Amino acid sequence: MWELAAANAPAEATGPMAYLVTYGPLVLMFVVLYFLLIRPQQKRQKARNMLLGNLKKGDKVVTIGGLHGTILELTDDTVILRVNDVTKLTFERSAINTVTASPSGDEKK
């Protein structure tokens, strides 16, 4: 009896349609994850790299620990911040979180 029902059942989809049914949801999941997770993270990383690359002497910055200071010296991987009139602290360049103010041309005179 079961053999008769199996013989009369329509044949399974073959060819391109079978691949679409099998791998379509997987591809759709990857596309959704890319636009929801990967792409925004890449944009944030690009903006952060631009921020760290555009640092210059005199910028007022806030570190990831919340310390406010003014940049005195820069190297490729370190930053020396002036916290008050006598205190200078050395940080990794990646420890800078935000730039709160940049020096204008009038302040450098």
From TrEMBL:
Biological processes, Gene Ontology terms: protein transport
- Recite the UniProt keywords alphabetically: Cell membrane, Membrane, Protein transport, Translocation, Transmembrane, Transmembrane helix, Transport
Report membrane topology. Single-pass membrane protein
Q: Subcellular location, in the record's words? A: Cell membrane
Q: Where are the transmembrane segments?
A: 20-38
Q: Which family does it belong to?
A: Belongs to the YajC family.
Q: What is this protein called?
A: Preprotein translocase subunit YajC
